[in-house]
Design a protein that fits this description.
This protein is α/β, with parallel strands linked by helices. It has one domain: 3-Layer(aba) Sandwich (Rossmann fold), CATH 3.40.50. The protein is about 40% helix and about 20% strand. The protein contains 7 helices and 7 strands, in the order βαβααβαβββααβα. The strands form 2 sheets. The chain has a 5-stranded parallel beta sheet, with helices on both faces. A two-stranded antiparallel ribbon has the order 4-5. α1 runs parallel beside α7. The two termini are about 10 Å apart.
């Protein structure tokens, strides 16, 4: 099996590192390492960066050093694993702030002309999005139409040329049994082995 350059973006903002999102990332990392994939971890809770507050800063500002480092890691990767908890129907604000800092003009796309408004700069990458949530995953998909996850997939990743090949929704995360958690961790380890 061909090995890959993989980056795990741990999007849970809790710096304690003891949430189920962290356990899922560790299981994936373990599986990927066992198969010889090269893995980088970006744990957003361990990074200090300012929140963007103006269009001028977003378009023309210089990304802070920690963000530039994250950009280089993402640019070098072939596959991204993005893990986060669902908060108020979408990603946590700190993850959104991180993605705004990373996926700015000049990194993900350049404005070319009115005929060809955007040229994608990040290409030939795949991604797997993993979302944990308190509600049942079927409710999120059928009633809320997975709106928040679709925003990450379409407005951020796909716009940049990153193809989301897998979505994993883990519902009722606060009430699932120890056996169910173990099954999810085993599933993530298998995904890591496969580089998916």
């Amino acid at each position: 099996m061909e090995t890959k350059e993989i980056v795990i973006i741990q999007g849970h903002p809790d710096p304690e590192g003891n949430r189920f999102c962290h356990a899922l990332a560790k299981a994936y990392f373990k599986g990927a390492a066992l198969k010889g994939h090269t893995i980088d971890l970006i744990d957003i809770a361990q990074i200090e960066f300012p929140i963007l507050r103006s269009q001028a800063d977003f378009v023309q500002g210089e990304p802070p050093e920690a963000i530039q480092k994250a950009q280089k890691i993402i640019q070098a990767a072939q596959h991204l694993l993005v893990i986060y908890p669902l908060w108020l129907g979408t990603m946590p604000a700190f993850l959104k702030a991180f993605l705004e800092q990373v996926f700015r003009p000049g990194f993900n796309a350049n404005h070319v002309s009115s005929e060809k408004p955007w040229e994608r700069l990040v290409s030939e990458k795949t991604a797997h999005i993993v979302v944990t949530m308190g509600m049942p995953d079927v409710t999120y998909r059928s009633y809320f139409l997975a709106h928040g996850m679709k925003s990450v997939e379409g407005n951020i990743l796909a716009f940049s040329g990153i193809n989301v090949i897998q979505q994993t929704l883990i519902g009722s995360v606060e009430s699932i049994s120890a056996d169910e958690k173990k099954q999810w961790l085993e599933q993530m380890e298998l995904a890591g082995r496969a580089g998916l």
